[in-house]
Amino acid sequence: xxxxxxLPSVGIxxxxxxxxxxxxxxxxxxxxxxxxxxxxxxxxxxxxxxxxSSADVVGELVNGSASSVAxxxxxxxxxxxxxxQHEYGIYGGADxxxxxxxIRGLRVPAIVVVHTVLKTPTPHQRSVLGExxxxxxxxxxxxxxxxxxxxxxxxxxxxxxxxxxxxxxxAEDVEWKPAVRPTILTWGLLGPGKGVERVIDVMASLQDxxxxxxxxxxxRTHPKxxxxxxxxxxxxxxxxxxxxxxxxxxxxxxxxxxxxxxxxMLRDAAVVVLPYDSKDQVTSGVLIDxxxxxxxxxxxxxxxxxxxxxxxxxxxxxxxxxxxxxxxxRRLITDPDTAGSMAAVARTLAPxxxxxxxxxxxxxxxxxxxxxxxxxx
Length: 377
Fold this sequence. Notes:
Rossmann fold, 2 domains, seven-stranded parallel beta sheet, six-stranded parallel beta sheet, 14 helices, transferase, Glycosyltransferase, Glyco_trans_1, glycosyltransferase activity
């Protein structure tokens, strides 16, 4: 296997651009990284009613259709390796169990990328992921916290679980520069669970600063939230800011940004805040993108944040401690040395999560699985 240099073709099953979700963005970036290495990438996109113009897309999976499930398997079988992105909510059936039938129909090795590991799954959720893991050639997780939770809570051979970090596109120039009016930034798809209420609630405590900060909440409303309740959640947040007297300091921006525009927005932020409600989140692409762009980060104590920020790239606060959040924000806004030090640590982490490095890891894993299959054929 050490001399195995063939670049295997890769089929990816996932949501995909232009679908507005982190998984689609992740898969598009991974496909781009693999293609840049000369690897043929073919995507079976989970249909959402919006067509994709991407040349990588060779088919669509229509959830709830047995014929589409079978066609998805066959399309993936035309490649040397299949990369299956796993989230419970993106596939058809109870807890997305249709994905089990897709993997069962594969004749090529499967890499399953596990984006969410539930600490307290329902019996059926545990069963679905257990079957997926049993059928996979290996499972990729993006943090040590995810690996530990997966191995402890699910029936999986630990040897099959590989850590490859979430990729990011580090900016070329991420030097931290204090702004005239500091910007606190939370970004990503907006919906309940993002915890932006925590930051809105403490903004009044920061208005006594010589240069009071503004809080920029950037990102579209999550498509599922939008379909269920329109912009009621966003409007409720704006009303909350007005009631607290900080409406002029809380800005909502639903503009869709290209990777370059996103990097510019990140560079303009004094601090990125991830105030998520979850205490179990083991993967956060927003966290990795923020680190890769050299931003100091404040996050609630979800596992991925605790793991990534523990070396000084940011600050972790308890979920239910508004005073700690206020103190952390005040310190980073008023102390450029501390903010600059955190940003410098973040920059040292950026090379290890660059998409070319991450794509190399996936390519090597694909080569290994294909070589193992050939060796046993």
